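User: what does the whole thing look like in 3D?
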Amino acid sequence: MASIQDISVSAVINLLSALFFLLAFAIVRLQPINDRVYFPKWYLKGIRASPRSSGAFGNKFVNLDFRTYIRFLNWMPAALKMPEQELIDHAGLDSAVYIRIYLLGLKIFVPITMLSFAVLVPVNWTAGETLEHIEDLTFSNIDRLSISNVPSGSQRFWAHVMMAYVFTFWTFYILYKEYKTISTMRLHFLASENRRPDQFTVLVKNVPPDPDESVDEHVEHFFRVNHPDHYLSHQVVYNANKLAELVEKKKSFRNWLTYYQTKYERNPVKKPKIKTGFWGLWGKSVDAIDYYMTEIEKLGKEEAEEREKVITDPKAIVPAAFVSFKSRWGAAVCSQTQQSRNSTNWLTEWAPEPRDVYWDNLSIPYIQLAVRRLLMAVALFFLTFFFMIPIGFVQAFASIDGIKKVLPFLKSLIEMDVVKSFVQGFLPGIVLKIFLILLPMILMTMSKIEGFTSLSSLDRRSASKYHLFVIVNVFFGSIITGAAFQQLQRFLDQSPTEIPKTIGVTLPMKATFFITFIMVDGWAGIAAEILRLVPLVMFHIKNTFLVKTEHDREQAMDPGSLNFSVSEPRLQLYFLLGLVYSVVTPILLPFIIVFFAFAFMVFRHQIINVYDQKYESGASFWPDVNRRILIGLGISQLLLIGLLSTKDTAKSTPLLIVLIVLTIWFHKLCKGRFESVFVKFPLEDAVVKDTVERTTEPNFNLKEYLRDAYLHPVLKMVEFEVPKEIDEENNPLVATKRTTQRSSKTVSNGTAEDGL
Amino acid sequence: MASIQDISVSAVINLLSALFFLLAFAIVRLQPINDRVYFPKWYLKGIRASPRSSGAFGNKFVNLDFRTYIRFLNWMPAALKMPEQELIDHAGLDSAVYIRIYLLGLKIFVPITMLSFAVLVPVNWTAGETLEHIEDLTFSNIDRLSISNVPSGSQRFWAHVMMAYVFTFWTFYILYKEYKTISTMRLHFLASENRRPDQFTVLVKNVPPDPDESVDEHVEHFFRVNHPDHYLSHQVVYNANKLAELVEKKKSFRNWLTYYQTKYERNPVKKPKIKTGFWGLWGKSVDAIDYYMTEIEKLGKEEAEEREKVITDPKAIVPAAFVSFKSRWGAAVCSQTQQSRNSTNWLTEWAPEPRDVYWDNLSIPYIQLAVRRLLMAVALFFLTFFFMIPIGFVQAFASIDGIKKVLPFLKSLIEMDVVKSFVQGFLPGIVLKIFLILLPMILMTMSKIEGFTSLSSLDRRSASKYHLFVIVNVFFGSIITGAAFQQLQRFLDQSPTEIPKTIGVTLPMKATFFITFIMVDGWAGIAAEILRLVPLVMFHIKNTFLVKTEHDREQAMDPGSLNFSVSEPRLQLYFLLGLVYSVVTPILLPFIIVFFAFAFMVFRHQIINVYDQKYESGASFWPDVNRRILIGLGISQLLLIGLLSTKDTAKSTPLLIVLIVLTIWFHKLCKGRFESVFVKFPLEDAVVKDTVERTTEPNFNLKEYLRDAYLHPVLKMVEFEVPKEIDEENNPLVATKRTTQRSSKTVSNGTAEDGL
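Assistant: Here's the predicted 3D structure for the full assembly of 1512 residues, as structure tokens:
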């Protein structure tokens, strides 16, 4: 077991690295040359136009005003200054609600920590005589403050049970209040939004084949008959996946061309050559510029042919369509009702924003979807449960004993106190972290195979998978494998009442491990996030080789976005740890509070200055967040039952089972009370917006407005080479692939104007 | 263990009692005086008017034509003769689909039985050498045919695994086909129905309070705004529960009055007296006729006051309403969409038929509903799991050893072979049966507390509870307590992989118990059903004391109805037994087939001649039936895993886990594919019906037609004493309490005409 000393070493290391990241950030950020890396959001919004160096310093690349370096933490108050409503207008509701999760963590855990330190720490500390007698158990001094210090059968455990009740009800109270606030925010956001195509549009999938009619005609007839007073128009979906590939390839070739042209301009002596074979490693050596020019020309022709084919060939039309209605009421009705007697045909759902559509998945037949989901469920099971073995293996290796056994010549080194502390306190966390980096792409691919049709739902779905993975492998995996990896087989054969006991007993011993984990992953990791090392390097590479015009420079910026599918489940781990250890080892709680507070500031800063969201879902992820916190609460209660039942306090079990039943019930209550706000569009609100609009703009040509909104992005790019800036400004919702970010910018602007 | 001999004794007893019931039925049924007990359906339909004795026999009460007695089984072919479409027109879709469940049992189990006997019985039988060596295990000769006969580790178990696959896929195939057929039947039924008020009407619950408007105005304004083109009218709901009580009480007093008047007429010498105290047991003795006449008069006044109060007092209006629309499209849209931004207000659902409404539950607030459901879930848990103890106790007592121990003087009696067989084969089944009779009322009360608003949903909900109870207590309870009641505590501490093993091992030994259970509950029980002993006695009592006019006689008939909430879950037990034992002990299957075939005929006869359903839900219970059969299938697979893993064939476990995953997936597939047909009304169908009606009857006054359809039944009975026969005929949907059966009659007639 790690002692207070180990923890302190680890804390110092992590604080130092966090501090280093922050200092690096402070220095790098102030250099005008990096301005586009750290403030891309403002460039995208068109508010910042050039590096902010003014003439006084003369130098465009390095900031020489030393006074600015002194206040290296001044981004923090700046990040907190913007009021929430302005933040919503500036960055969208998704982002604003996302950082509220950190705030929610603070709201839940600050009072819990105070209460825990006021009640449980004294209770545990003063119960301590017994442990001093048991010398063979290597209890560290941290355990003095934890529940392990209380002797079996003690009446003091009633304090823990009581606190479990208090913490649970406090969590309920905060969660309920937050859910209510956020559903109000969402409704207000939707109500104050400008006109958008998705408000009038429904995505129709699984159009049944008709022998006499094309998909186009069939859709029109069906909706003219079944929504006679409300149907306006529709847009069939073309299968342009091949075309999109060609466009993508041409874009890449164009980048290479620019690269070699720049190279040639800088060094006109040597004509750049490349090899045409695999990865440019072998094959005939040819002139690079000529090669790419011919290739691009060839691709251009292919692309034109494919484009022609997609538009004219009826087989390129998939059995799905975007159907638009004359009013929001009509669209809301169509999206919420069943159209056909065969419930696998004519499936309607509220259309995602044009930029949120995931085009590849629009044409999957119903039965195939069912099969795909079955296969992915099985795959997820294996991924989740058999990924555990390598983690345990590497962690066992990364312990003092493991290293001694495998690398005996390191023995003298690792027995030095500092190194020992480092290995024990630092290494297991890093091992875990490396494993976690591999995963999100696999999970996202799995979600895509499952056939979801919008980026936002793909993100939510991947987050669910990742959450399962984090709970099983990071949380339970760390508890079980680290302490008792050899016992795994035996563990599987235990009775359902034994499992919580086994885990419960291990729980207090694992507190120090999780404290280091929080410091590595939570503190230093978040500080690294603000430095944006990868985008920084990438920007400078692109800037050097590809950027010729101001427009190219804008393209080179990579503002990134909140990666909901990864960051939210990771965040949930902190809720889980906090809830589990709130009763068991309260000393862990301050670390979690520091994480939430620090992450809140960092992400608020990033959202204001950096991230540019790919879509806006109106906080539709909140039901998931709420559910997962409740799952964490349930796990904490279950483990407490297990822990207490090994302490000769079986009498408390029924009391704690009541808590679990209440938690499940509270989940159902929240679901019934609030969830539909995040799924459906109430008719009441639709009518209000329709009425207002009809009064203010009675002659608006909706059909014209919606005409091309849901055309596949590559089909809109008739001339890729010359971006028609002006056109796009007039029609903010032409979301072509290259200009996704630009169009989102205009939408945000629209929202901002509306809110002001 | 019971041997073949025991089974034979039990079979003979049960066959004899079944035969006795059938003979009694044949004799009693042919007496003209009982005609109304055995053919009430035809009376209610108005096709039969008087006992069918014609002048030739002279006697109105006893059938003397002995030729009719000879063909005492001729009701069987008669029951099978009516074609299905005619049956639907005659008895409604609910009944017609209900008896298809028995047919489904035959479709599933006849091929399974044949295959089982062709493959598994020889495999088991020829594996038998081993058992003869083990003398201490009391294997009976039935076990020769079961899986117990195959020695551990034998390769023969692959036959069982293969058969488990075949049976599972066969069940999938039949279930899928049946689900499809029944959803088509439902859609066809709904499409061919006559105009009914519920097609145009939506039940709105949780109308929020408004300080400025009454509920009446608030509802009207809300729907005029949010469904401007479709809203037609609405009917507020009065809290007439107290009034209904008064009416009920008056009706009972009126019956007593008639009783004493008849008594006095028959014996004019003695004036009948009663005591006014508790239950007529003590108190002042008064003249009965005078007493009831004054009481009725008093109640009449009270009732008039209460009626006045309900209609005029705004506080008697509950926050719920029946809102009607101009078209079926409008109603379908409103019932499927969310109205308000607060998802606990303005909850809409498709209105039940007027006669299906459960009026008492219309005004429960949302949060209260959530609390009620929580409490009922907890109550159900305790009821289900702690009811087990008395069953086990009584069953342990009702075994040979139990009786010997408690009543030692019976020792010599019960050691006689016949008595021993009787005790072993018969008694445990009866004990179980008695316990089961107590339950349905409790479960129905629990469902009512949960706040469902229609009789059909109450029935479905009670059936779910009862199904849980049957699985836990009858199925698992019989397996565990009978064999190892003392092991219960130990059992709870076993690992999740151990539990299926323990049950799996006991399974083959319990086959004989379940065979006797099938004979007692299935064979003799069904034969008793057709005799209708209780209604027979009740009818004659009423006929003697209460009937004065032909109308009174009609009132005295109790046609009964299919009690879905009890009979469906019981039926599911047979599916469960069949699926579980199909691989383990195939000898049980023929008993199940006999049950399904016999029950099919009996219930078809009852549906044609006797039962009169209280409501028509259009087979909306089918998703439950399908789900429960799949639950049975899953249990059978789980227990097979347990059984085989004790037989040294752990290699087969992954193969069987695949089956369980497939079963869950198939359930999801069915749900996605078909369930919405049973829950929602597709707009396509609504439009078709609307269009047809608009063309054929362009001037129909819908508002007038719907005016009183959803008024509380007691409020419609302005003058209870004089039933206005003619009025009711003109307005078939005035479903007053007394005339529920009559109005259903007219509806059925309507359907019949429509179908012809």
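In plain terms: Confidence is low (pLDDT under 50) at residues 51-58, 133-139, 482-488, 719-756 of chain B. The beta strands of chain B are 201-205, 231-238, 273-275, 285-287, 317-325, 347-350.
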